[in-house]
Amino acid sequence: MAADPSVDYYELLQVSPTAEPAAILAVYRVLSAKYDPANKSTGNAQRYHLIKTAYETLSNKDKRLAYDRQRKGPASAGPAPAAPSGQVRAAASGASEQAPSQPDPASPAGGAVDRRFEARKRQMILSVLYDRIIASPLQPGLNMRQLETALKIPKEQLEFAMWFLNESGCIKSLDNGRFMITFQGVAECERGEEQLKAKSSEG
């Protein structure tokens, strides 16, 4: 299967665009075993073939370079300007593919874990994906770079929240490397917003 630059192979394999071949191989082994059609519990033929194509592309130096050039396209002239702050919902309905260059100023400094901030990030992700599915029901998913842009939080600081939401059933990954909110996620998002309103009224 030929490489498709419209599909984010890095997202499919859950690796950074700067990942070393060894890291790509390690992730591929886990994912290919999970989605192998022979696996009766988690097998998915379409997902398996996409992951295989992603690995064959990213593990080959020449193919990877060609894919990266096609993936970036003419955007090499420079990064797009960051969206104005406070417009998370607007960004969600048509989020840019350009990742943010600056970390979220609200994130904890010095590597300390801020549990309240983690909870807030999860609510923000659900809010963005909630608005996306309302605005574009036929294309309800966003990839990690779009979420980075909408939230102004780098991928590394989103990974735990995405893992948590995926494991709890609030979001799910699609075959094109994007994520969409689930029925359970919609309920959680609305419940979270009601709690925020209640706290505001108490204050």
Précis, in short:
The protein has 9 helices and 2 strands, in the order H-H-H-H-H-H-H-H-E-E-H.
In DSSP terms (H or I, runs of 4 or more residues), the helix count works out at 9
Q: Let me know the number of strands.
A: 2
Largest sheet: 2 strands, antiparallel
The chain-level mean pLDDT equals 77
**N-to-C SSE series?**
HHHHHHHHEEH
* Classification by helices and strands: mainly alpha
> What is the CATH level 1 assignment of the largest domain?
Mainly Alpha
Describe the overall structure.
Helix content is 54%, strand content 3%. It is mostly helical and 203 residues long. It is globular and about 55 Å long. It has 2 domains: 9-73, DnaJ domain (Helix Hairpins), CATH 1.10.287.110; 88-202, Winged helix-like DNA-binding domain superfamily/Winged helix DNA-binding domain (Arc Repressor Mutant, subunit A, Orthogonal Bundle). It has helices spanning 9-13, 21-35, 45-58, 61-72, 88-93, 115-135, 144-151, 159-167, 183-202; strands at 171-173, 179-181. The chain is built from 9 helices and 2 strands. 28% of the residues are buried. β1 and β2 form a beta hairpin. α2 (21-35) runs antiparallel to α3, α6 crosses α8 (159-167) and α6 (115-135) packs across α9 (183-202). It has a two-stranded antiparallel sheet with strand order 1-2.
